[in-house]
Amino acid sequence: MTRLFGCVCGQFHSPGAGLGMAAERVAVPVPFYVIEHPEGVALFDAGLHDDMQDADDPYRQRLREGGMDVSLTADETLGRHLERLEIDAAKVRYVVLSHLHFDHSGGLGSLPNATVVVQAKEWAAGADEETSRRYFLPKRFFDLGHQLRLVDGEHDLFGDGSVTCIPSHGHTPGHQSLRVRSEQGDHILVGDACYTAESAVSRNFPAYADHAAMNRSLDALMAMRGPQTVMIYGHDPDQWGERALLPSARG
Ligand SMILES: [Zn+2]
């Protein structure tokens, strides 16, 4: 049986407007997901790099210059979450990346043997200097020499329909979401195709993104829902902590 866990790997701090939220300043969770499948462990996204614990890290300094920041404690790193789940990081088979932003690809360095599963369009965007600058895709976090599986459109990861990549471009050129059918139910892990349940309604998207593409992608994701489908948004504070929709530990 397939099992799905949700983990919070630190917080992203930003003016609310940058995330389409009304509050002047917000701190939102940086989640990643662990999928235990009979044929191996897959992650969806990889959270923040361990170095983000250090306030003097050059990337954090750059974020602060732009009015943003992150926070990460030793207890919230990707490695600590995997330890708690009794998963050997060296044995993680796949990391499906929603996109190449630093708060989704950061933990890749802790997963040396994983195959990175990413949309070919996204990888090409990260490799192109102008596009990567426009969409903030810093090579430092993702270009580490992992084995790659570049996919084009929908992709059935294990070939049994349990874990399916769904293209949801717009936030970045090759953004993808993930549908997971597990013991925990039917989930669409939306990623940053939409930050919060609220912006799924308001359609308040980040300024730099392709809004027409985001609207089309989100419409398509919404249309895939069945009566039991649970949508988990990219950075929604109301879907974590006490209101968490997914287990974060074995129970
Ligand atoms: Zn994000």
CATH uppermost class: Alpha Beta
Distance between the termini: 15 Å
Outline the biggest β-sheet: 7 strands, mixed
Number of helices: 8
The CATH topology assignment is: Metallo-beta-lactamase, Chain A
Q: What is the domain tally? A: 1
How many DSSP E strands?
12
Shape: globular
CATH architecture: 4-Layer Sandwich
* Protein structure class: alpha/beta
Describe it for me?
The chain is an alpha/beta fold and about 250 residues long. The protein has a single domain (about 5-240), classed as 4-Layer Sandwich (Metallo-beta-lactamase, Chain A). The chain is built from eight helices and twelve strands. The chain has helices at about 60-65, 80-85, 100-105, 120-125, 130-135, 140, 195-200, 210-225; strands spanning about 5-15, 25-35, 40-45, 70, 90-95, 115-120, 145-150, 155, 165, 175-180, 185-190, 230-235. The strands form two sheets. Strands 4-1-2-3-5-6-7 form a seven-stranded mixed beta sheet. A five-stranded mixed beta sheet has the order 8-9-10-11-12, with no helix packed on it. The longest helix is centred in the last third of the chain and has 13 residues, at about 210-225. Zinc ion binds near residues 101 and 234.
